[in-house]
């Protein structure tokens, strides 16, 4: 696994403590602390799986371009 700078940010005000981001993180960058998700690791793939599964959009990976997640219909 390639170690990369962690750019994951979790908004504790939005986090509902579901743990989905922890479950899908291949780098174990995120852990539960006091009932909320928190960035605890020192490495990250920057893959965005955590942000993709968050039901309340509390997780953000700043290394990813938000525009790359906009999709258009294939009519």
What is the topological layout?
Elements (H helix, E strand, L loop, with lengths): L7 E3 L9 H5 L5 E4 L2 E4 L9 H5 L5 E3 L14
Antiparallel strand pairs: 1-4, 2-3
Structure write-up:
β2 and β3 form a beta hairpin. The chain is an alpha+beta fold and 75 residues long. The model has no long low-confidence stretch (mean pLDDT 87). The protein has 2 helices and 4 strands; from the N terminus they run βαββαβ. The longest helix has 5 residues. The strands form 2 sheets. The protein has a two-stranded antiparallel sheet with strand order 1-4. The protein has a two-stranded antiparallel sheet with strand order 2-3. It is globular.
Short description:
The chain contains two helices and four strands; from the N terminus they run βαββαβ. The chain is of the alpha+beta class.
Distinctive features:
single chain, 75 residues, alpha+beta, two-stranded antiparallel ribbon, 2 helices, 4 strands, 19% strand
> What gyration radius follows from the Cα positions, in whole Å?
13 Å
How far is the N terminus from the C terminus? 39 Å
Helix content: 10-25%
Amount of beta strand:
15-25%
Specify the biggest β-sheet.
2 strands, antiparallel
Give me the strand/helix succession: EHEEHE
Oligomer: single chain
Question: What overall geometry do the principal axes of the alpha carbons give?
Answer: globular
Give average pLDDT, whole number.
87
Structural class given helices, strands, pairing? alpha+beta
Total helical elements: 2
- Which stretches are poorly predicted, pLDDT < 50 over at least 5 residues? none
Strand order of the largest sheet: 1-4
């Amino acid at each position: 696994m390639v170690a990369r700078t962690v750019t994951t940010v979790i908004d504790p005000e939005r986090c509902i403590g579901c743990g989905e981001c922890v479950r899908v993180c291949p780098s174990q960058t995120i852990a539960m602390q006091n009932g909320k998700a928190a960035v605890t690791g020192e490495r990250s793939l920057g893959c965005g799986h955590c942000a993709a599964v968050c039901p309340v959009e509390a997780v953000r990976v700043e290394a990813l371009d938000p525009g790359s997640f906009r999709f258009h219909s294939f009519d």
